[in-house]
TrEMBL record:
GO terms for cellular component: plasma membrane. GO terms for molecular function: gluconate transmembrane transporter activity. Keywords: Cell membrane, Membrane, Transmembrane, Transmembrane helix, Transport. It comes from Flavobacterium crocinum. This is Gluconate transporter. The lineage of its organism: Bacteria, Pseudomonadati, Bacteroidota, Flavobacteriia, Flavobacteriales. It is found in: Cell membrane. Belongs to the GntP permease family.
């Protein structure tokens, strides 16, 4: 019964947004309340559950989104994004522009958290789209597919790292296997699939990051300065991740943990960009702050929608629907890799969080791994692939993609949701192929 209630709630959520045109944030709150009631949560606990879900979701990504959007806005208004786009495109040329973006997304996506990579790379996608008069979705899918694969498959991202720890896998082998599987996956789900969206249009001229809005009163930054400023979080996270691995100094490790937090890195990056792309380029502080103010206003709706998704996710977790799904799947007699993939996929569809889906699945299936002669490294990747399945309205990334690219709900399903599903399905297919070759 709980699974039927969950299914009905998700359908109702989609109908509110797509049919009745209700604001997604309000739709999430209404659906969360109804789900809590029908799933039997005590009335007095419903409000605290929603508040916890909202707070935990926003607490983990709000600063990243806001700081990243401010950096993106400044990179655009200072001309830095245009400088980067022009230089990169001179290297790759129009013919191979999507391949260049895909490779860039994959390399940057390995050390960079998904949310950070998304908000940092979107301005580059927009600048290239404006320069070559191409669809933003057509250009964006290859790069974002690379980020998604890195997020679900590759350490040091939270889910693969946690899964490797739970399942006693070798992080180095997980990374190697993950890269082997990721390459054909993004070539198909990113590069090939994106050819379907050459003519997809945005709903209006409004964009969160308007590539034509260059307000720099002084000179344009150099390519080196632009790249260093925009990708400073990549360097910061990479250094703070590697230093603890090569040093036993307790103080150094503690400092790396503090500075290496994505929110702290993003704040330091914002301060750096304020100088390198603002003050150093002869812009006044008030002009830079005006950019930040506008960026925060533009991203407010995305932040609220993300919080609404957190409310629904928390209701599902507290009500125990996930455990019901897991218990049902445990009775199915199929290959453990496929079982892990299906279980992670269903939980992902229900709660929207790839990390949550992966951790729930790994915790339940740990005894299965211990009782079978399975490769724990491929088991980690099986769970990771399943956790990327079918991103839809309860996934914050779905709304980030829709709102940043300013496309319709229908086009978001056709592009983003199908791309994520392809990544997931291709991932498990290549895992079985690799398993056959290795063992």
């Amino acid at each position: 019964m709980s699974i039927l209630i969950l299914t009905a709630c998700i359908i109702f959520l989609i109908l509110q947004i797509a049919w009745f045109k209700i604001n997604p944030f309000i739709a999430f709150i209404i659906t969360s309340l109804l789900a809590a009631l029908f799933l039997g949560l005590p009335i007095e606990t419903i409000s605290p559950v929603l508040q916890k879900g909202l707070g935990e979701m926003l607490g983990s990504i709000t600063l990243i989104i806001v700081f990243g959007t401010c950096i993106g806005k400044l990179a655009v208004s200072s001309g830095a994004a245009k400088v980067i786009a022009k230089t990169v495109m001179n290297w790759t040329g129009r013919k191979y522009v999507r391949l260049g973006l895909m490779i860039t997304g994959f390399i940057i996506g390995i050390p960079l958290f998904y949310s950070v990579g998304f908000v940092l790379l979107v301005p580059l996608i927009f600048s290239v789209a404006h320069q070559f008069k191409l669809s933003k979705v057509y250009l964006g899918i290859p790069m974002l597919a690379s980020l998604s694969v890195a997020h679900g498959f590759l350490p040091p991202h939270p889910s693969p790292m946690a899964l490797s720890s739970i399942l006693k896998a070798d992080i180095g082998l997980v990374l190697i296997y993950g890269i082997i599987i990721a390459i054909p996956t993004i070539l198909i789900a990113g590069l090939w699939f994106s050819t379907r969206f050459k003519n997809i249009k945005t709903e209006s001229d409004h964009e969160i990051l308007n590539v034509e809005e260059i307000t720099n009163e002084g000179k344009l930054p150099s390519f080196g300065l632009s790249l260093f400023s925009a990708l400073f979080p990549v360097f910061g996270l990479t250094i703070t991740s590697l230093l603890p691995l090569i040093s036993d100094n307790a103080k150094l490790i503690a400092v790396c943990k503090i500075i290496g937090d994505p929110s702290i890195i993003m704040l330091l990056s914002l301060l750096l960009c304020t100088y390198t792309l603002g003050i150093k380029m002869n812009r006044s502080m008030s002009s830079v702050m005006d950019d930040y103010t506008q960026a925060i206003k533009d991203v407010a709706l995305i932040v609220l929608i993300v919080g609404g998704a957190g409310c629904l996710k928390e209701v599902m977790i507290v009500s125990g629907v996930n455990e019901t799904i897991v218990a049902t799947l445990n009775q199915v007699n199929i290959h453990p890799f496929l079982l892990a993939w299906i279980m992670a996929a269903i939980i992902r569809i229900c709660v929207g969080s790839a990390t949550a889906a992966g951790l729930m699945t790994a915790s339940v299936l740990l005894p299965l791994l211990q009782s079978n002669d399975l490769d724990p490294n491929l088991f980690v990747l099986s769970v990771g692939a399943g956790s990327l399945m079918c991103s839809h309205v309860n996934d914050p990334s779905f709304w980030m993609f829709k709102e940043y690219f300013n496309i319709s709900l229908k086009d978001t399903f056709k592009s983003w949701t199908v791309m994520e599903s392809l990544v997931s399905v291709l991932g498990i297919v290549f895992i079985f192929i690799l398993n056959a070759l290795i063992h």
